[in-house]
C-alpha cells in the first residue's frame, strides 16, 4: 500500500478471545481522577514495555 | 464505522469496530472523505472531487487500494455488537480509601470541598476501619490476584500513620490470601518529608503528586489554608521523591481551568523541571464558576492540545523525553474489548471508602445524596446499585453507541455524567469533546513517532550496508 500505512493492525474483536481476566489497572488508579481514559491502560497479560515510549522509559514495567 | 481526521498535520483513519489505525497521505485522506460522503457512489463520482487537486492516475490507484483495504477487512468492518458478559460475579478489585477528609490546602476547584466532601465534618480514617476495608476487598475480589488500593483525600498524608498501618496489614493479607496489593497514594505533597518519601517509594506502586504547572498558575488555584501559595512548599519534595524512585511509576497530576487555557506551557514547565510522567486534566465544575471550561472554549483547547502535541514529539525526539498521560495510547498491547466496554469500573469493580467506612461508587460520588452503597463495617453492600453501574457499559449508552471514540474512552466518567445530567448513562458533553480531541492527537502522535522510528531504522540499515 502506498497511500495507506498501517499504524495498528485490526484486532479488537480478537481480544475478546483472550481478554476479560480483570487483572489490568483501573484507570482512576493511575493519573486520571476527573477524565476517564481507558485506552491507554495496558493489558496485564502482555509485555508492558510497549506502552509509553521506545527508549525503555515507561511508567509501568511489570511483566507477567 | 470509520473515523477520518487530521491532527498535528497527520491524516489518520480509524476503523472503529476492528481497532485498525492507518496513516493516510493527502490523496488517501481526500479519497476517504469523498467515499464517506456516499459509499454507494460510483468510482467516477467518488473520484470526481479529487481531480481538481490530484493526478487522476494516482487518484485511481488510491481508490484501488481503498477497495483492497475494504475487501481484506482493514476498513469498514461491520459494526457488530460484541457478545460479552461483563463481570457477572460482582467482583470488586479496586478501592479508593479516603485516609483523610481534611486538607492542608484550599484549592478553589476542589470537588471534595476542601476535603470534607460536603459532610460538614473533618475526619481521619481509623487504622481499624482501613483494615476492615482491605478485608472487605479481599472477600469481594474472587479470584482476582492484583488488587488496587489508592490512598486519597482530602490530603491522605495528614493521616500517614494510618496509611502505614493499613499497608502493613495488607502485606500480611497478601501472604494468607494469595493476593497482591498495588498501593497508590495521591498527595498534594505539602507534608512530604524524608520518612514519608522513603515509605512511599518502598510501598507504593504509584505515587500521584498534584502540581498544576507554572508557579503563578498553581498558586492561584492551590493556596494553603492561610491563603499563601503552595508551589514553593511542594516542588523540592516532589523532585526528591521522583529522583529516589528513578523516575518510575509516578505522575505529576495537575488541573487546568479557564484561567490557563495555555496549559501546554504548564505541561512543558513541569517537563522543564525534570518531571517525566505528566498528567494535566481539565477542571470539572459547575458552569457558574469563573474558572469553569465552557463549550465555546473547545476550539481554543483543541489548538492547545495540538500545540502541546507538536512540542511533545519534538522533545521526545531530541532527547527531552517525557510522557503525557492523555497522549498515551496503547494501540498494540491495549486493553481487551471487555475492558473497553466497562471503562473505569466505578460502582462495579471499583469503589471508594470514606473514613467512616461508607462505600461509594468512586471518590467523586462520596457525599452525593443516595449514592452510598453500604459500609465495610457492617458488611452491607447495595448489589442493585452495583448491577446498575455494571450495566452502564459503553454500548448501553445511547450517545456512545454512535460515537467513534466509544472503545477508547469507554463511555466517560460516570460521576461527571451523574453530576451534569443526573444520569450515569448520559455522558458529559464537554468531557466527550475534549476526550475526542486528545484521542485524535494521541493517534496522530503514535503514527508520526512510528513513522519516524521506521525511517530512522531504515537510515541506520542503509548506512550499515
Jot down its keywords.
heterodimer, A: 64 residues, little secondary structure, 6% helix, B: 465 residues, alpha/beta, 11-stranded mixed beta sheet, 3-stranded antiparallel beta sheet, globular
Report on the architecture of this protein.
The complex is a heterodimer of chains A (64) and B (465). Chain A is largely without helices or strands. Chain A has one helix at residues 15-18, and one strand at residues 4-8. The longest helix of chain A is centred in the N-terminal third of the chain and has 4 residues, at 15-18. Chain A is elongated. With 465 residues, chain B is of the alpha/beta class. The radius of gyration of chain B is 24 Å and the shape is globular. The model of chain B has no long low-confidence stretch (mean pLDDT 93). Classes of the chains: A little secondary structure (64), B alpha/beta (465). Chains A and B meet through strand 1 and helix 1 of A and strand 2, strand 3, helix 1, helix 3 and strand 7 of B.
Form type of chain A: elongated
The share of residues in extended strands of chain A comes to 5-15%
Biggest sheet of chain B: strands side by side, in what order? 12-11-10-9-8-7-4-13-14-15-16
Indicate the low-confidence ranges of chain B by residue numbers.
none
Radius of gyration of chain B: 24 Å
Q: What is the mean predicted local confidence, pLDDT of chain A?
A: 65
Find the count of extended strands of chain A (DSSP E, 2+ residues).
1
Largest sheet of chain B: 11 strands, mixed
Number of helices of chain B: 16
Order of SSEs of chain A, N→C? EH
Tally of strands of chain B: 16
User: What structural class is derived from the secondary structure elements of chain B?
Assistant: alpha/beta
The share of residues in helices of chain A is under 10%
Q: Describe the sheet with the most strands of chain A.
A: none
> Biggest protein-protein interface?
A-B, 55 and 106 residues
* Multimer state: heterodimer
Number of helices of chain A: 1
Percent of residues in helices of chain B comes to: 40-55%
